[in-house]
Amino acid sequence: MDKKLNIDNKEANQKCLNELITRIQDIDDTAQVGIIAAQDIIDIVIDNLGPEIYNKAIFDTNKLFQAKFEDLKYEIEELKR
């Protein structure tokens, strides 16, 4: 996946990065991360960036629906005789 997720909330993004770095540094053998540490990392990302990702999805969906609605209004106007 080439596209990076653009998180507008720089504070949430930095907090997530800091927690991930701390968690990885806490792991004694980074070659053997393991399922529990991997789940911890996923939880950190979800806890810190989940709300930002959700809100961005809602914003993008709203923008898409507004554009589609404008298209429909135009098409309805075209139907008038």
Average residue pLDDT: 82
In helices, the fraction of residues equals: over 70%
Number of domains: 1
Q: Which structural class do you get from the secondary structure elements?
A: mainly alpha
- Rounded to an integer in angstroms, the radius of gyration calculated over CA atoms is 21 Å
Strand content: under 5%
> Uncertain regions: pLDDT < 50 for 5+ in a row?
none
- 3D shape: rod-shaped
Number of helical segments with 4 or more residues: 2
Helix-strand sequence: HH
For the report, how would you describe the main beta sheet? Answer: none
Task: Report the span from N to C terminus.
Answer: 49 Å
Count the E strands: 0
Q: Any key phrases for this structure?
A:
mainly alpha; 81 residues
Question: What would your notes on this structure say?
Answer:
The mean pLDDT is about 80. The radius of gyration is 21 Å and the shape is rod-shaped. The protein has 2 helices and no strands. The protein is about 80% helix and about 0% strand. It starts with 9 loop residues before the first helix and ends with a helix. The protein has one domain. It is mainly alpha-helical and about 80 residues long. It has helices at about 10-25, 35-80.
Which secondary structure elements does this structure contain, and how are they paired or packed?
Blueprint lengths: L9 H17 L7 H46 L2
Helix pairs in contact: 1-2
Q: How would you sum up this structure in a few lines?
A:
The chain is mostly helical. The chain has 2 helices and no strands.
